[in-house]
Amino acid sequence: MPSVVLIIFNxxxxxxxxxERLRDINIDQLLVIADGPRPGTDDAGxxxxxxxxxxxxxxxxxxxKNYADENMGCANRIVSGLDWVFSIVDRAIILEDDCLAHPGxxxxxxxxxxxxxxxxxxxxICGTNPLTDIQDPCSYRFSHHIMCWGWATWARxxxxxxxxxxxxxxxxxxxxxxxxxGNQTAIEHWRxxxxxxxxxxxxxxxxxxxxxxxxHGGIAVLPNQNLVMNAGFRVDATHTKNxxxxxxxxxxxELTFPMKHPPDTSYGFQYDIQFIEQEPGRVRTAPAPARVxxxxxxxxxxxxxxxx
Length: 308
Known about the structure:
This protein is of the alpha/beta class. It has a domain at 1-97: Rossmann fold (3-Layer(aba) Sandwich). 38% of the residues lie in helices and 16% in strands. It has 10 helices and 10 strands. The protein has an 8-stranded mixed sheet, with helices on both faces. Helix 6 packs antiparallel against helix 7. The radius of gyration is 19 Å and the shape is globular. The N and C termini lie far apart (51 Å).
């Protein structure tokens, strides 16, 4: 059984709920990552309370902790914590305190981490699927797009993560044109979040990770049932503050075992356009003005012409 990573911060009620669920699952090792309290806030007591729940839980497995004494910020803490994880193990299942998983999620990840361990194109296994209305005979499909509310990966994939997003603008534009399939709303959103993340205006780790996957031609496994619910859409969240958001508290669904596997790793790519159009957890802001999108399209076309 792969190690399970639990990422916590300052919401002890969610940590308690998560621990109750994980304690009864047959896991061999729990790796806990925690950020430190932010200065000038009431985090200190909340962070201590969250950590005390880890200590008070009667775990039936090996538990290791990687706690920050001072606040590192969401992106730096998660990235540094996962760097620590993959210095210890070669694969892991990752849950944040607010990502509540169906019991079948652990088995789903366990089986697929083994099945695709040596397939370097497969870089992530997702637990969340917002497109559950798609009827498909297989248990999962593949996608160029990721969801990070309950997921799994390998050390061989995580080593590709480039937190600096150190790519020339033209290379980023090429990737966005390819993987957004011409959807200008999505393209403009990604240009905006990449710029903000690079400038330190957006404290996010998943945008660089997604860009790293695209850069390496990677793909992700997406279950055909939703196996993880994000219960953290509330005012004390770092990013997901709108409790009425479309993706808040997505219902958990049952996955049937044994799984029916797709015939190959291109299976399901046709659904990517729906993933993009429904803007699942990514396109949360208003689209850029039409004139900006027009300028971008003209520049991209000129580049293609000049490139011959």
